[in-house]
Amino acid sequence: MRWEALFGDLEAQLNGEAARGREVEIQEMVRIERSRIAVAERLAGHVGAEVTVTALGGLRLRGRLLQTGPGWVAVADGPREYLLPSAGLRTIEGLGVRVLRTAEAPPRVFPGLGAVLRALVRDRAKVTLYCVDGAEAGTGTLDHAGADHLQLAAHPLEDHRRGREVRSLVVVPLAALAAVRREA
Predict the structure, then answer these.
(1) Exposed/middle/buried for 103, CB within 10 Å: 0-12, 13-18, 19+?
(2) Residue pLDDT, tens place only, 100-130
(3) 10 torsion bin: left (phi>0), alpha (psi -120 to 50), beta (else)
(4) What are the Cα distances from residue 77, in Å, to 27, 50, 121, 181?
(5) What is the pLDDT of residues 7-56, one digit of tens each?
(6) Whole-angstrom distance, CA of residue 169 vs CA of residue 152
(7) 93 vs 53: CA distance, rounded Å
(8) pTM here?
(9) Per residue in 22-43, is it b (16+ CB within 10 Å) or e — as a string?
(10) How do beta strands 168-173 and 149-154 pair?
């Protein structure tokens, strides 16, 4: 009887150590897997969710995550829509644990930041530009999107881009850009 108790006790100890070893191994595998997740994958898994985004410079938006693509995020804060370069993001609140891995992504290809900015130029969109230092760079119409900068024809939003209405041409390096707000 004592031998059975001894063997039972040893077997329980071995099983306990094996279970702890498996638990430690699983935890390490989870940590490794999480270390491979990019912020774009986290964001892609939450398109349509309510989020709070803070850009460099302090611009804080509370709204719906509209879309995300290589190097950018689009957020609707009430009726206003913002395009934020990923490099200009400080924090994102409201994300759960959902991740949309590249392999799981729908077969749609999203344009990069440059293509989205060029589309705004093509549409002659009226915009307000915000910089990473918190300053507003100006309002008006985007004239062109270069490789590393934007050119804004600064004018009052109620006016169209016409020679007499343009106060100045403002060049904003993309590195200084925190957000583009599309105006109605």
Answers:
(1) exposed
(2) 765 555 555 678 899 999 999 999 999 999 9
(3) alpha
(4) 38, 10, 22, 10
(5) 777 778 777 777 777 787 878 777 777 777 778 888 888 999 999 999 99
(6) 6
(7) 6
(8) 0.79
(9) eeeeeeeeeeeeeeeeeebbbb
(10) antiparallel
Tokens 């989870």, located at residue: 30
**DSSP per-residue letters across the chain:** -HHHHHHHHHHHHHHHHHHHHHHHHHHHHHHHHHHT--HHHHHHTTTT-EEEEEETTS-EEEEEEEEEETTEEEEEETTEEEEEEGGGEEEEES--S----TTTS-S-----HHHHHHHHHHTT-EEEEEETTS-EEEEEEEEEE-SSEEEEEE--TTS-S-TTT--EEEEEEGGGEEEEEEP-
Maximum pairwise Cα distance, the chain: 103
Q: What is the pLDDT of residue 163?
A: 83
Tokens, residue 140: 């008006």
**How far apart are the C-alpha atoms of 54 and 42, rounded to whole Å?**
16
pLDDT confidence of residue 172: 97
